[in-house]
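Weekly modeling sync, notes
Attendees: S.R. (lead), two postdocs, one rotation student

Agenda item 3: backlog of single-chain predictions. S.R. asked that every request posted to the team notebook include the full sequence so nobody has to chase files. The rotation student volunteered to paste the first one in as an example of the format we agreed on. Action items at the bottom.

Example entry:
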Amino acid sequence: MAPGQTSKMGSRVVVVGGGLAGLSAAAVLTQQGLAVTLLESRPRLGGRAGSFLDNETGEWIDTCQHVGMGCCTNLLHFTRLVGIDDLFREERELTFIGPQGERCRFRDNIGPAPFHLTRALMGLRYLTLGEKVRLGLDLRRLAHARWAKANDISFEDWLLKHSRSRDLRDRFWDVILVSALSDTTSRISVSAARKVFVDGFLSHRSGWRVLLPTAPLDEIYGQRLTNWLTSRGATVLMQTGITQLEEQEGRVSGARLRSGELMRADEVILAVPWHRLADIVPPSLVNHPTVEAASQLKSASISSVHLWFDRPVIDVPHAALIGRLSQWVFARVESQGMRVESQTTVPSEQGGSHRPTEFSDLGCDHSPQATNNGPLTTDRLPLSTHHSPLTYLQVVISASHEVSAKPRAEVIAEVLRELGEIWPAIREASLVHGRVVTEHRAVFSPLPGSEAQRPVQQSPIPNLQLAGDWTRTGWPATMEGAVRSGYLAAENVLRRQGQSVSFVQPGLPVSRTASVLFGIRGDGMQSRTQG
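Predicted structure, as returned to the notebook:
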């Protein structure tokens, strides 16, 4: 056994944090036979990929719509590993709605990547033929390997200096990048932008395909995953927060619970948001450059507008909206009605009426939806009594720095106006219930220079690993990045015990055509960062 390694026999691994990073680490270590205890401060697992109970409808709704992509090979591996892959469906067609209401179907066609999306790009009718040609040239330019490590300039600067299609920022670049990275082209690095397009759209035929959950996230990552872990010997403790990790003789000895109890551990994986890191690590690490750098990562906010109508109002399951406040809309039909108390009417700008108007700001300190990711605010609109099935829409607004500062009534009114311009049925329907949820520190922002602030999974203390999509994974802040971090942290734990086990899955293979035309070599998909 090498110096600094510990014996697998009797090793106690404590995973702090029940988001995807902590869950993925716990899952693979449990499969390897280690004694794992997972600590989650909230009453539910899933972290940011979570749900909350809407009291008016009695429905569990997701804080924000989470989607994966075909290029998320580790996320897909994790869902298969723990048996929840049946709760996701693959979408092979998207709908883009242009500034003038142009409806465009986005789907792949026969041929190798990147030609599989030629018809989809040509079908964006709100772009001219010349604009599409310029976009194609710029995508080829962006795919060059020289931009894979360009972390010191913003994508907006890249567009100004290297692009022929910079005037299409609002109608193309931001449409994709804001949804994927939760921030605007003026704030994200070139390498992060390249990652999205190369891995998602240019390298492999199925990389762009969207994976949608078919059940509330609380169901997916809640009891079902808890049962999977506990049936294999893991201990899952919810509503068990910690105050700090304790250290003895240069090693973490355990986690001090809020109850005062010390949960002893041989190995610890700390899978909490970056802005909580300095509060939890042992005192010897508080001022360490690794912790200080990670704590200075900037955040991006995401808002979601939840709307319940008394009838079907849109004719697609989801759509991307171009040039509007509303960026994506997702629809489903509820299985039952609802009961609420008050009844009011909001005049619409089109002359119809919507209900409701009365808002109640719950605030992050009193809302059961408050998270460890920072302030989360919700505003709700209680309305009329209704007992028939409802149509539920969720409108997602990423990079909502400015939106989150607006009155929620103003945000909902603007969303209703935009949706009504596209789907007139919305102007005729009654809005039975609505609310706005904003997660102010939803993800870290991939600003130029931020890559250097992201720590590797191995912390300066040998038996302490860091996990989270904010650690260095080769991916931006995504569910894929979170799972990769958990796998990498778990690999480090086992390596310290004399085992060389690889959990991280390779990316999708790059098509030969994309490799020849664009020079893509799989550099982004195959990267491994452990420390």
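Discussion: group reviewed the output briefly. Residues 54 and 149 are 43 Å apart (CA to CA).
Action items: rotation student to repeat for the remaining queue; S.R. to check formatting next week.
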